[in-house]
Design a protein that fits this description.
Length: 208
């Protein structure tokens, strides 16, 4: 896993079906368990978290993965982190008019993310005392990407683009079906004008 290039494994805690490691985050008072879910989707995400809760006691969960952009302000390899999550999976109604026009009506559920974590990540970008660290991260990631992809890469709408320095952005994320339908994506945008990213994993609920 790519994450283990930056966080050294302290202990292998994998099961027969779930890959997971306790990793070193540079602080002896903090433990981080990295878990790779078996398959994509929110059911697998829920199962992975529930299995971890069965054996460990931890304070919060971070879901890390890829997502699609709903705005031209984000480029390939930019990093988004959510301060709020909309889930439109539940109570969605599909209907068709008398003249055969198909439409979807959402009943979104919204949850805020843990504000201190979001603020801490924001400060890395906005605090003058930390901006050198942010700039170093941008340069390191740009150089790493260009070492793997020497030419232009396929970006938005299938167009080729040059790799640039990534930026990070706090935003609202919507958990919904991934689609290349512009009509569907436009419908998602009506949920909230500040939604930037769409992802398939959903708002994971579990008992703990």
């Amino acid at each position: 896993m790519e994450v283990q290039r930056f966080f050294k494994s302290i202990e292998d805690l994998s099961t027969d079906t779930i890959y997971r490691h306790c990793v070193d985050v540079g602080d002896p008072d903090i433990s981080m368990l990295v878990v790779q879910q078996e398959e994509m989707g929110r059911n697998s995400a829920r199962d992975a978290v529930e299995a971890a809760f069965d054996e460990f006691d931890f304070s919060f969960v971070v879901c890390l993965g890829i997502a699609g952009s709903l705005t031209a302000n984000l480029r390939l390899c930019d990093v988004c982190y959510s301060y709020g999550i909309y889930d439109v999976y539940d109570n969605t109604k599909a209907h068709e008019s008398k003249d055969g026009v198909f439409d979807i009506a959402f009943s979104p559920h919204y949850e805020k993310c843990y504000a201190p974590i979001v603020a801490a990540i924001n400060f890395i970008r906005t605090d003058p005392n930390l901006q050198d660290l942010y700039a170093a991260w941008q340069l390191e990631r740009e150089e790493a990407a260009k070492a793997k992809f020497t030419g232009r890469v396929i970006g938005r709408a299938g167009a080729f683009e040059a790799i640039q320095q990534p930026k990070s952005k706090d935003c609202k994320v919507v958990c919904a079906a991934v689609s290349d339908s512009e009509k569907y994506n436009n419908k998602i945008r009506t949920v909230d004008r500040k939604i930037f990213v769409i992802g398939p994993h959903g708002r994971v609920q579990f008992d703990c």
